[in-house]
Write the structure tokens for this entry.
Amino acid sequence: MSADLLIVNIKDLVQTEDIIREKISGREMSELKTINNAFLFIRNGIIEEFGPMSTLEKGTLPFTSNFVKRLDAHGKLVFPSFCDSHTHLVYAGSREGEFADKIRGLTYEEIARRGGGILNSAAMLHLTSEDELYRQSMMRVKEIISSGTGAVEIKSGYGLNTEDEIKMLRVIRRIRESSPLEVKATFLGAHAVPREYSRNRDKYVGLIINEMIPMVASEDLADYIDVFCDRGFFSPEDTERILMAGLKYGLRAKLHANELDFSGGIQAGVKYNALSVDHLECTGDAEIEALLGSDTMPTLLPGSAFFLGLKEPPARKMITAGLPVALASDYNPGSSPSGNMKLVMSLGCIRLKMLPEEVINAVTINSAFAMGLSETHGSIARGKAANLFLTKEVPSYAYLPYAFGSDLIDTVILKGEIINI
Ligand code: NIG
Ligand code: FE
């Protein structure tokens, strides 16, 4: 059990809540509650109390005894840890060769058609043992912890056959058991059609439905199910069949949708009450209409749009229409080889024209919602997990997305423990 910890003299305690909200939508996204010159008290890994230093200085609070460990945060801000609700950080090797192909002018889809892309990662993963895959993935886990992430969703999807998909999901389970991160697992058998099924996609969809999903469920290896519903990958009809099969096992959807085309993926996700639909570069009025009034979190992945040079999703239009927006990294070897959520915030501001307050809401409460964690993560609130970080000395919270290349994370605390980064 972790020791009690009292953090004092916090210059600004960011994203505080007295009443826990499950998500933040529309105009409210530009509001962010902070407490100036604050303290925060952690007991048993949980946030127990916080407030202005003046209330602490009265000396009436029960935890001010000398036995409690103190941390002085003079000049520093405290943020709730980032929640990264969309990653593929379990993968083998890397694909910087395709990076060079892209620079020479090939598109993501052209590379995929040549057997590069997801199929290339699947071939490398097939040749990699479970232990080695875990070892490589844990390096990325350590990297994202040191850059401020405290909860992460990780997808399978580089297996594309039953055995290798299960191998990936077991590695994700091992990460959940061995790292201080909060981890959610998503089964993404429908990430790409393997070459041997290229003329018979239906047969591969059948394999997912009849073999993979029951196996994944029998070992309780996934929290969610995902389909890459887009041009050249899986159709809305395939997606609906797969989601229906997943629902029988209690797997709620989180979809890849509308990255490459107006694919119908957003509408399919809303129809099946998906927890989130992600990417959304191709979003128009009909898609926004479908999302309004739904319980589905629109999640934008500006790292992959930036890396692939895609047009940007209409974040401003979505927020103006009253939608919530979450941001995630999409950490993966093909379209976003970075899990840096601070950079994601910067891209949200610079490319998507979101305000600093909006991006902070998008990488905390709203991305916690997009992975089913907004009751326990995503803000500084009494009773929530003590997952947070101290910044280096910075003038304001807006300085984090503004100073896009600087490492400004000073101390990481997960489940109440200070992590060696
Ligand atoms: O989210 N869009 C589909 N899947 C990943 C890319 C995976 C890859 O290229 O390896 C994504 O961008
Ligand atoms: Fe993705």
Q: What stands out?
A: DSSP finds 16 helices and 18 strands in the chain.
